[in-house]
Structures are given as structure tokens and as C-alpha cells.
Amino acid sequence: MLKTSALTVAINVRLINHTIVIGTLSVLTGCQTLSSPPAKTPANTVATNPLTARMPAIDRQGYIAYVEEQGVGSAKISTLYRIRPDGSDRQLIDQLNGYIYAPAWSADGQLLAYSKQAPREHPNIYIYDWSNHTRNLVVNADGSNLSASFSPDGQKLLYSSTVGGNADIYEMRLSDGETRQLTTLPSTEVQPSYAADGKSFVYTSDKVRAGRPRIYRYSFATTNAVPVSTGGYAASPQLSLDGQRLAYLNGRKAAVMTLATGQVNNLAETGLDEPARLSPSGQYAVYPTRHSNLDGQVNGQNGGGLIIHSLSGNASYTISRKDGGVVRSPAWSR
What we know:
The chain is mainly β and 334 residues long. It has one domain: 6 Propeller (Neuraminidase). 2% of the residues lie in helices and 45% in strands. It contains two helices and 26 strands. It has helices at residues 50-53, 57-60; strands at 18-22, 30-33, 64-70, 77-83, 91-97, 99-105, 111-117, 124-129, 134-139, 145-150, 156-161, 168-173, 179-181, 189-194, 200-205, 214-219, 225-227, 234-239, 245-250, 253-258, 263-269, 277-278, 284-289, 305-310, 315-320, 326-332. The strands form six sheets. Strands 1-25-24-23-22 form a five-stranded mixed sheet, with no helix packed on it. Strands 2-9-8-7-6 form a five-stranded antiparallel sheet, with no helix packed on it. The protein is globular. It starts with 17 loop residues before the first strand and ends with a strand. Keywords: Aminopeptidase, Hydrolase, Protease. Belongs to the TolB family.
């Protein structure tokens, strides 16, 4: 196992149209079992939402995990939820005084990896198991441990860590904790995300110019990485399951690129510098926003939430936040 430093990542990954508003492992370094399953909130009445009604079952039957933040500084409270794409069945997964980062689902939707950072501590990676409602600490290296991504078979975990001094990407075998370092450059390599075939992953690096991140694709067969042609500031990549699309942060905009043509669909400047994330079918994207409408105006305490956007048209709708906080980091499961 890595000997687990504190870090400041060199790059600052800065972190509609028709709108319908919907209210409302085997290796463990620590294990916490919940006394009971997460409480459910009543389902919302969203049967009239035409966008949800025509979603493929693989999207409609999945969950979106996301983080809601309240307060600032030492008073920061972060809550991790999951919710159906129609806005129903919101469930609390975790909460702490501090930060929760970058939830990521396993391919079967049963495991959720994310980072937690309590005050005066470095971020560590946990996995929540829905089958038995346990929360397991899997990476507690002495550094910032972030951006977990499950391999397609659920046997391995990619993540970034500063255990070696600067941020690099590591791969852990979950059965026994065996870990190998995949990148060794003096630059910053972060935000890895597996391709669905497990043969490669995409990630963010500023190796060409410090503070100007680009997206690269690493091949396990060759151990080489090649840039993805996005142009300008690009970060936080995620490939669709069919490998045809790339969701990412394009400058300050949540965006989706069609890889075969290079065509970029800039969905919105969200006010949060958050990327888009794709649904399992790849036909929809979700991203958080501070704004409650499409002209960028914030509607007081009712502003902000999760935007779900159809990539085959201009239809979008909003799932409103629960506690009036800042919504971040959605991830969509099967």
C-alpha cells in the first residue's frame, strides 16, 4: 500500500431551451457499517415530464449521485445524495463537516467511490456498498487522494494522489490493495476515468504548460498517453460507454464532444466551473448550476440544481437542490 502528504494541485481545475423544474471490497483499511439503510424521501410527481418518459431504461432506472455543500471554511458541511433522474427517491449517503469530492459509480451501480476531507486532514477515498450499506476506507495515502474511477470489471480503482510529492495517477487492485503508479512526470496528472473496455483511460495534465490543463488518453498496452484534441483549457474528462462521446469542462463550460468529428456541444457556463457527466446510454448529460433558468439569472434561494439535458435535442429540465446549498459533482449510474 502507499504510505499515505498534503498537496496543492498545481493546476486549478476550475472546478436551457425548454426547462422543466422538478421540486424537490475486499481490502479495507477501515470500515463503517450504517445502522440502517439511508432514509428515503417521498417520490416527486414527475410523470408529466416528457424528457424523463422517453429516456432509455438504462438511464431512467439508474441513480445520480451528487454533493450538496452549505457554509464556508471551517463551517462547510458537505452531503452526498443519490436521486433518480426524475427527481424522486432522494437518499442521503454520507455527510461531514468538510468536503466530499467526485463520486464515481462502479459499472453495476452497486458501489460508489468518493473522497472525503475533514478539517485539517487530507482527502481519502471511500467506497460505499449498497448491498450491505457499508462505507469502506480504501485509500488513505499520505497526500491528497482524489478522483476515483472503477475499472469496468469492478476489480481495480484509478485515482490521483500526491503521495510522491506532486499529483500522479495510480491504479489499485481492490482484492489485495496492490498499487502501481502509472504516471511519473514532474507535472500534475489528475482526474483519471476508465474507458468502458478497460484498455485505456482519460485524464487531465498540465505537462505542456503549467496551469493550462489538457486531456490525454493513456493506453495500458503501450503505457503511452496521447492528447485528445479539445483545444484550450480542458479538464475533468469522462468517456461514454460506447466510446463515442467525451464529457468534460471546456474552459468554463460544461461540454460534450463527439470524438469522431470533434464537434463540441457547449451546454452551459454553470457558474461553478463543473464538467458535464454522461448518462449510461450517452444520450443525456447532467451538470450542476447555480442558475435556475437559462439566461443566467439566479433566482434567490430557489436558484441552482442539477440540469439534465438531451443531447439529441434542446430539451432540458432541472432537479432542484434539497437544502439550499451549492450542488456539485453529479455522476449517473446504470
